[in-house]
């Protein structure tokens, strides 16, 4: 007796093919969604890491600022206008953050093989009781000033030297005016004083008008810094750059021929800053594009 097994009918074959097709389509869609989520997560992690690193660099620089010198600059006016970052009228039109920073490397010191110690190159203190201290001669015990020129040249890629350095007294008195830091070719640098190094512990002030009063504490400065979009008038998908190696007290500006420019972060949409008391708030927003998706993240930091 022969046994016959019934074969699939054409309708059954079509149904099987349709069912498997539906399953395959659903599976493909699931895999595509998983891969898309993976790409989005990877891009977000990359953006967060880059933004965090940029903010770390910015806050590290700002930690060594002369706090009263920070300004917001409006590059949409001719000439540029600026106000102190603590000014209540600071708004989104002021897109450039500028400040004068003191030499933290020289202040922390360089390694001395003889003592196996890091003595400061400049101590930040003036001996007001020393008989040799006066309006033009400053005795600064604990300093090793003859090493400062090497530090400045190394940090500036030989674009600056001790001849570009000035000292700033943290106390400016009751007549505080941010323009007296020499910003924007103001021709006023009443708070900075040109110096030369006489020996390891002696600074000589070379200004035609010496400081009206000598304070016990000082900061040694050789550069101002600026954070700005590149190009300056960019509003979307911008490069955020750091300008350095320029001296406002010598009528130099961040966008002049004397400064150096370094890229910090790409694809920046928002760069905001504001000051409350002595604390600066910095906000960055960056974006990236994946197919038809625009991914954006924002991060903030405070600098004391």
Describe the protein's topology.
Elements: H1 10-62, E1 71-74, E2 81-84, E3 96-102, H2 104-108, E4 137-139, H3 148-155, E5 166-168, E6 192-199, E7 202-205, E8 219-230, E9 238-246, E10 260-276, E11 279-290, E12 293-303
Antiparallel strand pairs: 1-2, 1-3, 3-8, 4-7, 5-6, 5-8, 6-7, 8-9, 9-10, 10-11, 11-12
Structure commentary:
This protein has 304 residues and is an alpha+beta fold. The protein has one domain. The protein is 22% helix and 31% strand. It is built from three helices and twelve strands. The chain has helices spanning 10-62, 104-108, 148-155, and strands spanning 71-74, 81-84, 96-102, 137-139, 166-168, 192-199, 202-205, 219-230, 238-246, 260-276, 279-290, 293-303. Strands 1, 2, 3, 4, 5, 6, 7, 8, 9, 10, 11 and 12 form a twelve-stranded antiparallel β-sheet that branches. A hairpin with a 2-residue loop joins strand 6 and strand 7. The longest helix has 53 residues, at 10-62. The protein is elongated, with a radius of gyration of 30 Å. 29% of the residues are buried. The mean pLDDT is 88.
């Amino acid at each position: 007796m022969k046994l016959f097994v019934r074969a699939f009918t054409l309708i059954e074959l079509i149904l099987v093919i349709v069912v498997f097709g539906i399953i395959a389509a659903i599976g493909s869609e699931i895999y595509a969604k998983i891969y898309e989520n993976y790409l989005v997560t990877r891009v977000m992690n990359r953006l967060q890491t880059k933004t965090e690193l940029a903010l770390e660099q910015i806050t590290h620089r700002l930690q060594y600022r002369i706090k009263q010198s920070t300004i917001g600059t409006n590059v949409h006016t001719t000439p540029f206008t600026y106000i102190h970052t603590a000014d209540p009228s600071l708004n989104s039109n002021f897109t450039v953050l500028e400040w004068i920073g003191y030499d933290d490397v020289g202040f922390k010191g360089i390694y001395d093989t003889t003592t196996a110690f890091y003595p400061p190159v400049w101590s930040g203190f003036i001996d007001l009781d020393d008989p040799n201290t006066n309006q033009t001669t400053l005795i600064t015990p604990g300093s090793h000033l003859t090493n400062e020129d090497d530090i400045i040249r190394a940090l500036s890629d030989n674009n600056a030297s001790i001849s570009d350095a000035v000292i700033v007294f943290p106390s400016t008195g009751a007549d505080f005016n941010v323009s007296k830091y020499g910003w924007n070719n103001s021709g006023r640098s009443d708070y900075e004083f040109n110096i030369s190094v006489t020996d390891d512990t002696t600074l000589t002030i070379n200004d035609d008008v010496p400081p009206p009063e000598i304070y016990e504490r000082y900061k040694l400065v050789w550069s101002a810094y600026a954070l700005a979009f590149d190009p300056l008038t960019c509003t979307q998908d911008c490069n955020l750059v750091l300008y350095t190696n320029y001296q406002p007290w010598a009528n130099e500006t961040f966008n002049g021929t004397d400064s150096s420019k370094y890229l910090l972060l790409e694809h920046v949409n928002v760069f905001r800053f504001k000051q409350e008391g002595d604390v600066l708030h910095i906000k960055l927003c960056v974006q990236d594009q994946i197919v038809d998706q625009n991914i954006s993240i924002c991060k903030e930091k405070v600098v004391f």
